[in-house]
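Here comes a specimen:
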Amino acid sequence: MHRKALGRGLEALIPAGTATEVGEGGGAGQRQLLIADVGPNPFQPRSRFDDAALKELAASIKATGVLQPVLVR
């Protein structure tokens, strides 16, 4: 029996080709956004971020790219 588990990427949960484009009416799907159009969540409980951890994250993204899509709503 094949055990399904998390950690295999978003494709394991949502197969490719099943997302729909987001229109003016909203809804789920995929689309590209300009970074300038994305803002912080006003309800984000974390207000302080460790500079060393952010630099480590930036270095990791530069080396390997973004491994999972960024979710925005």
Remarks:
- The helical segments are 10-13, 51-64.
- Residues 5 and 12 are 9 Å apart (CA to CA).
- DSSP finds two helices and no strands in the chain.
- The radius of gyration is 16 Å.
